[in-house]
Amino acid sequence: AKEDGRGGYRMFEDGMNARMQARRTLELDLRRAIARQEFELHYQPQVDARSGRYDGAEALIRWHHPAHGLVSPAQFIPLAEETGLINAIGEWVLRTACAEARSWPDHLTVAVNLSPVQFRDVRLVAMIRSILAEAGLPGSRLEIEITEGTLMQDEERTFAVLGELRADGIRISMDDFGTGYSSLSTLHRFPFDKIKIDQSFVRRVPHDRDSVAIVRAIATLGASLGIKTTAEGVETDRQARFIAEEGCDQIQGYLVSRPVPAARIAVLFRDPRPL
Ligand code: C2E
Ligand code: CA
Ligand code: CA
Ligand code: CA
What we know:
The protein is an alpha/beta fold. It has helices at 8-33, 73-83, 86-101, 124-135, 148-151, 155-167, 184-189, 199-202, 209-225, 237-245, 262-268; strands spanning 39-48, 54-65, 69-71, 109-113, 142-146, 171-177, 194-197, 228-231, 250-251, 260-261. This is Signaling protein.
């Protein structure tokens, strides 16, 4: 019913307009954010579960909005994807992450999240190659994190693109594994280098039986397929111990560190054994 007899319809309409207006404003702000240098990358360390040493870090974008303060990527990435702005933003992320990782110790990798939308751009591989060359970073030090969403569109082309990147030494990670439609056949059809076990499961170990079973199954699967596994969202010592006992290769989460600015990650990397 559009009319509830008490002006409900009008209120609903005003609410819609207000939301659409706010969205349009956000979109305009987002368009200007790169030029105005409002984006920054934070880095969250990834630690080898067995040795307790750093393997590298994941780049996570931050937007310092002049009026709204810090806006979370969960809020603006979807809008950036709908408007296509993610292509420019994603290119900025790659360029900045590769440039900043250049000064890290040689054995450390930088992981960058790629949106499904970026895979629709036929220039993606050329763009990544030129960014690596420009930064002087070998492909082996870059990791690309993709989600199920990326594989759900034109799988053949996506696999071809991933294959080209992989031939350059770039590692490919399956992010948020266990959520959405991640299927076992996906792992069988493409040689992923890493599976990231979604934090919704990691958060509930070792107390929740189902989560224990899921984490254990993914760790076993990774080990038997020769794919590295990373547990995301590790917050406690108990979770870290469980993860290591299950044979996961890598730990990422607040236990080691929250995502931190570039200057701070360089300092963290001086600690030879954070865990
Ligand atoms: P994600 O790729 O799954 O990144 C992990 C998220 O979990 C990050 O949130 C991180 O700060 C958070 N996290 C890490 N450890 C813990 C923990 O121990 N406990 C809890 N509660 N949370 C933890 P963030 O930075 O807000 O990013 C959210 C999502 O936004 C990312 O999820 C990713 O999908 C997207 N995103 C972030 N940066 C980029 C980017 O540069 N490009 C694209 N396309 N997406 C990005
Ligand atoms: Ca990620
Ligand atoms: Ca994730
Ligand atoms: Ca290892």
